[in-house]
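RECORD TYPE: protein structure
NAME: RND superfamily putative drug exporter
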Amino acid sequence: MATLLYRLGRFSARRHWQVLAVWAVLLAVLASLAFGLKQTAAQDTSFSIPGTQASDGLDLLEQKFSSGANDATATIVFQAPAGQTLTAANATAVEDLLGRVRGLDGIASVSDPLSQQTPMVSRDQRIAAATVTFDGTVGDVTTEQVDALTAATDHDAGDVRVEVTSQVQRTEAGHTSEAIGVAVAFLVLVLTYGALAAAGANLLTAGLGVGAGFLGIMALGKVVSLSTTTPALAGMLGLAVGIDYALFVFARTRTELRRGEELDQAIAKATGTAGTAVVFAGTTVIIALAGLSVVNIPFLTQMGLAAAATVAIAVVVALTAVPAFLKVLGLKVLPKKERRRDPAGLRAVADSDDSLVDGATADLAGRGFLGRWARAVTRHPVVALLIAVVAVGVIAVPVASMRTALPSAENADPATSQRQAYDLLVEGFGPGSQSTLVVLVDGPEAASVAAEVGPRIQALPDVVAVTPAIPSRDGSAQLITVVPGSGPTDERTSTLVRAIRSATDGTRGAEVLVTGQTALDIDVTDALNGALPIYIALIVVLALLLLIMLFRSLAVPLLATVGFLLSLGAALGSVVAIYQWGWLSDVFQIAQPGPLLSFMPVLVVGILFGLAMDYQMFLVSAIHEQHAHGRRPVDAVLAGFRRSAPVVVAAALIMSGVFVGFATSGDQIIGSIGMALTVGVLADALVVRMVIMPAALTLLGDAAWWMPRWMSRLVPNVDAEGQKLTELLAQEATGSADLPGGRAERRRPEEAAPEEAAPAEAAPAGAPHGVPAGQRVERLLQDLDLGIVGIVTDGVGGALPDAVLTVTDPTGRQVARTHADDVGFYALPLSAGGTYVLIVAATDARPVAHLVAVSDRAVRHDVRLVGSCALHGLLRNGSEPVPGAVLTLLDVQGQVVASTRAGDDGRYRFGDLVAGSYVLSVLSEDHRPVAQNVEVGHGQETELDLELSHGGRLVGTVNAASDGRGVQEASVTLVDGGGAVVDATTTDLDGSFSFDDLSGGRYTLTAAGFPPVATGVEVPEGGHRDVEVALGDGARRDADEEPSRS
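PREDICTED:
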């Protein structure tokens, strides 16, 4: 993927004006559709789920009574001035206003609240309510019809106050929340970049994505009924991720420019590397949002898919429009002080920025606030972990009392006519007037069943009134209206609905359904609450699978998942405390604390999961990379933290800045979602990822990255670091083309460029003898940022083509792989410094493994492969084999290469040897040691038979001639027949001495202590001889005239 994105980024940079023109045309088309299409559908403010009892009941009610139960309605509320009543004096003004409403297009009927037959007037005669029924469902009512009703009721009827509440009330969306979010994001970007142009361009590209997504939703909303929440949610999320995704590409481009890359190449490499992270992050968010469809709730699916589409557009913008903008921006993406630097100076800045942490120089991580923070966490991981978990846990405590409900007029802004109308209705008719329940009895015995269940319902708690049953035209159904004593979002109303269904369950002769708008809202809320655990479980499983595949570990995915759950708890707990309990309600403009929006927890789970996994990937992948390259766990945490933490913090501040703007919008629906996401993002990025993860990884050490072998074989290896792109860049640096699988096209020496084919310079130190390094390797060392380059040769110094070279980290994970070309050259690009294992193998050659240390630039490492050689032979003494002898093979420096024992047949074998000179030593009991030089040929089986012989032994004593006692520390010298000294020794306390491992023959023994004595002695081959030497009188006595075999 990284290679594909690299090419896309390079294309977008080189054809930047064409790319931007395509986006401009796309925006123009979407704008023309959004503003040019005729409005045929209104925004949908209703929420329903097909298949629930209330939904089925409404359909049956429409069928049996033709009542227009599914038709959209509005209520016009009239209130007489204080101290007055709705008398005949002001009835005319009321009737005139209702007459204007009846004359509007799309109005089916308008009730008369002051009629004698069906009055709708409060007991104090001050408040009256008229019901307006539209000609169609909520989805059929157009924006023009809503505007016409608003205009007709936009002034009082004489002295009578007029307010309107409607299912299709238009919400005039302000832009204060977006402005706050953009301002916060711009400030963070300026501080991050140190360049106004870069910050502005980042916002501009994000606005491009949000604009495209928003215009698309507007165009779709002209022909499809969309929820009023859908555009706001999509815009909120699209703006946040659009800024962040562009930030990743901008930041990486700056890094490449500082390394001295040409502008187009810097943009292309940034798109290939940071773009891979953007695709991964965006895909995670898209899957989480699209996954809302699994709960099978239509309006939730609609919101999830719309938000997912906006995120997808943000990803495409980051991969195409952002590279084009970067090309237009040029070096203005850098701070002014860096634009005048030469490439060497920029490279120095990059090296400084990208420096890593060694175990011995961990103080590098201490520079800056985040560095000091990381060191504090890793020095006291237990304390940091406890404080963080307790802090997040305390914020999450209110979740235990969370209540949810669908939005109603009582949650609207107090300044709106909709909320004021609701308050007047509650004041005049009680809270139950806004939460009436419809009990529908359908069946052949509907009349008798209705007469039976009516008293049962009346006897239930919290029932204010039960109307007499009204029969349908054909008598097959009966309708009963129940007035609760509580409002639509009150928990007592939900309890009453369940109690009625329980009391009428199992009734024979007719089916009893509890329906109506209030019952429908309760059913939807119950369905959402039931879907929430299923969705969370799905998200947790997805997180585990995703992170196991990414990090190839068990502990890290578990930690990340637990961290996400903590962040989710903090997000929902804060919203419960503010929106349900009323804490800080004045600050966030919450007029009426109450239950949370039913679908808010599900949406927050999906969005927060995507963002949390982004932060997890950006932070922990850097730590994982450092650990994989051999760093100690604490050093890996510090190095990875220093590289990735600033990006995570900046992204989180931008996200939270956008979300907090919506949290203070005054709209409790959007506000509650914005607040939950603000707290969730801050808790996840600043507490879970900045404290809990580094502390836990420090405590776990190497165990954090452990995975069972059987699982490691099953889990695919994801190239999250873009290693294949690095290989491609190295291949381009060598002038080779791409082939499928990432292997470079090889050129024969005669096809190489002249400076490559000619041995322009001698091989550098460490290069195999006879193989010139050439300018090609030197060019690789200059062009490759990080990696290993060199030459592979055979045992005689010739080029070894097609050798396979593999680099692994100390844990055995493959990091890079390539082949040597026809002249033995190879290049293995790497993404970070560290200690690696270089494994080289070739046909008919012995494989080797070398440890190679890579710091901050490419290094040269030449490799010599030799064919497999062997040494074998037979040990014998005369005609008899010598079994069990110990054979040791040493190289010319005296280092032991291998050792073995001779078999029962006296044969031995050393296999898998490198051609060269060796010394073979043989040690066998009762035989003289043998050492023999041997030359092992390249790729040959060398045979060497050795003859072993038994060694003789000479022992004796040196005595004083005067008294016969042994002479201590007398010097004894043994000389062979040729006059050469064989050995010398001194006597022990009792005058004894010995000479071992002697060849058979005639020797001269000399003893000195008194006047020296010399005597001849015969030592038999492999035999034992005792001798006694007397000092002082020249006498000699043989202790044993006959030899004895030992």
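COMMENT: Residues 342-367, 734-774, 1033-1046 have pLDDT under 50 and may be disordered.
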